[in-house]
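so im writing up the methods section and need the IS110 family transposase record in one place, dumping it here so i stop losing it
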Amino acid sequence: MFEIDKVGVFLGLDVGKSAHHGHGLTPAGKKVFDKPLPNSEPKLRAVFDKLTAKFGTVLVIVDQPASIGALPLTVARDAGCKVAYLPGLAMRRIADLYPGEAKTDAKDAAVIADAARTMPHTLRSLELTDEITAELTVLTGFDQDLAAEATRTSNRIRGLLTQFHPSLERVLGPRLDHQAVTWLLERYGSPAALRKAGRRRLIELIRPKAPRMAQRLIDEVFDALDEQTVVVPGTGTLDIVIPSLAASLTAVHTQRRAMEAQINNLLEAHPLSPVLTSMPGIGVRTAAVLLV
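--- predicted struct ---
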């Protein structure tokens, strides 16, 4: 249970994008603060310092420790205040016990402060692991954005290949995650460009990136090229569009690999990492998502 013995004032914050609402209660339940607070360090620090000077230890409680709640918690820590987190579900259930149905920032802040004062067992401590989780939240969110972008770009490439040369799409489309395939399409985006480059040259060019599948891949590419003798109108535009899309896809894949390394470094510092990564089918990205 969260220790509140030495707390002089419980400051509940209903956090918001541009401003928070603060509600301060003494251990006896006397209201000592009830005002909006701009989401800026000087204003927050001034309130924390004033309450600390008058009441001693200040416990700052929020219902959203990440995102819009990150700055007030960081300033509170720096000002010497204790910090805690009241989970949103617990907060909503506790709020149902208070009179009035209207949901306001002032009421929510009062509920948070009073819950911390009277029900400290509902609070969660914000320790180093929570800082790691906050960083993982940002990185995994960005990684998911990159994954969505990779899917969108891959689908666009596959759509164009299906439109102009379905046989070629059946060979290259399922392999767009392989760097050898994106490298190939960056340089030879159309059926004509691939045929002009020649089978032997293409094998030699991609062998360093795909030693085991170079021969098989290029053989399948040329088999696909031989299946279609007609040229669909608009095929020439592939020389412009496909290389650009392939380059974008390569860049996204590179970013995702770098992001995975960053996520892995943070994950290793989390105490739950060995437990999660020891589970079958749980890799770095999945473990990080489970933590956030």
